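In the design runs reported in the main text, the only information available to the sequence generator was the tokenized backbone. The following block is the verbatim input for one such run; it is reproduced so that readers can re-run the procedure and compare outputs position by position.
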């Protein structure tokens, strides 16, 4: 018997949706925008994969799962977070601890996928926040800037797209091993 797999996503600028589409295709899974699926529908699936973009360390939309873990008993829960920063274990651990309460952490597998950034596509509030952060970083002495800060300043001037189909392979392999 094949496991029924649902891939859900919450995307703002398209990177998370792109990864969700690739994952769903690779696993022959059903794909849903998280805004349009109900918990009742999720009960038809053994494996639930959720993707959300990162915003200040929070995975957008993941509360659909975290607030309903009692209704998802027996389901395999895999989450992928999409962000702009390079992948670092300590950052991923911070995201994991911030987004998942201690009593559900053993039921969730988290993966990080690098997305894209285009300052011009941001809404006004996000542009304002980015400008404040840029100003703060620019006033720091340049010899004190770490690689992440330098990279952030660069990407604010030049849009970047780090999405790569190969990045989904660890997640896909993980799900295949569940079968």
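Verbatim output:
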């Amino acid at each position: 018997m094949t496991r029924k797999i649902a891939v859900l996503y919450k995307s703002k600028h398209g990177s998370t949706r792109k990864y969700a589409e690739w994952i769903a295709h690779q696993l022959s899974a059903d794909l849903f925008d998280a805004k349009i699926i109900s918990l009742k529908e999720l009960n038809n699936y053994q494996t639930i994969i959720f993707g959300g973009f990162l915003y200040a360390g929070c995975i957008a939309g993941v509360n659909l799962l975290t607030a309903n873990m009692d209704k998802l008993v027996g389901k395999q829960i895999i989450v992928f977070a999409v962000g702009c920063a390079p992948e670092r274990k300590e950052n991923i651990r911070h995201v994991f601890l911030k987004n998942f309460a201690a009593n559900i952490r053993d039921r969730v597998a988290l993966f990080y996928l690098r997305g894209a950034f285009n300052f011009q596509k941001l809404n006004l509030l996000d542009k304002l926040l980015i400008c404040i952060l840029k100003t703060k970083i620019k006033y720091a002495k340049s010899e004190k800037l770490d690689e992440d800060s330098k990279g952030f300043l660069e990407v604010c001037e030049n849009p970047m797209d780090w999405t790569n189909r190969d990045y989904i392979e660890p997640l896909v392999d993980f799900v295949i091993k569940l079968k």
